[in-house]
Amino acid sequence: MCTTIQIDYEGGTVLGRNMDWDMEVDYHILYLPADYEYGRDLYGNPLKSRYRMLGMCFRKMNPLKDGVNEHGLMGCTNMFLQMNLYSAKVSPGKINLSALDFFNYALANYRTCRELAADLPNLHISKRDHQGNKVISPDFHYYFSDASGDTLLIEPQNQELKALPNPYRVMTNSPSLDHHARALEKTFQKNGREFHPAKDLPGGYDPVSRFIKAYYLNQHIADAKTCTQALENAYSILEALKIPEAFTKTRYDYTFTRYISAYDATSRLLTVRSHMNPRVYALRLDDLAHLKDRTFIPVPRQLTLDCLFPQDSVTPSDLTSQ
Question: Is the dihedral of CA 219, 220, 225, 230 positive or negative?
Fold first, then answer.
């Protein structure tokens, strides 16, 4: 369960997402330099990055969940549970990848959504390698946008990757985009009366409900003129769509929003905040250009209170001891 939105401003675009997960997970910011081997294809050949990448990862592992590259191509992965998504065998003559490595491959090799869409027929996702062994290939679909404001939704359909235009500037999870579009149309039909968002917007946290709410909020929030305003809009909307802790029980733990991230394509900027710490942290890809190795950067999660007086910040335990 995740929600992704794209917000344009004058001369740029921001991509933000809620990372909703159903168990405790250790996440970090990850920087990957150019010419770094981040994985292997399904023939065992090394996958190396042409471009530098910055994004969020789980358990200090290379697959990024969301990120941006040095040319401003940015995107994210969301769960997309469907039947018969991927082939069970490799396709000779194509680049064969697991779904886990596809997102990194895209950021590592393409500068724009158009480049990625044009090369998509040459890419193949399989859940088995060339020897027939099972590989980790999660049920994902992918959202990309770039510095020009172009957007691209990639859905696996009948064991092929399909590039879809996404005029809604929103992505959640299953079902398919056309199903979400029909739900939008049904929700916003006035049926002879004025639409009342406080009553008529769905209140659930399921993917269709979140898609509708994300679209509505994105359409009606004040237009952003600057990157800062676009980031403010992104965090405002995603905060409204955040799944609170201890709300949705699973067999593992609780599903809730572990972090919120937002990227700016023009400045190659990553911003992120944890579910417990509302402070937003920022890091530019260009500031890390001097690094030659893979680098992990932790995201502070503990709540910190900024007191107006005195100047120093304090923690909740500091307050109770006073």
Answer: negative
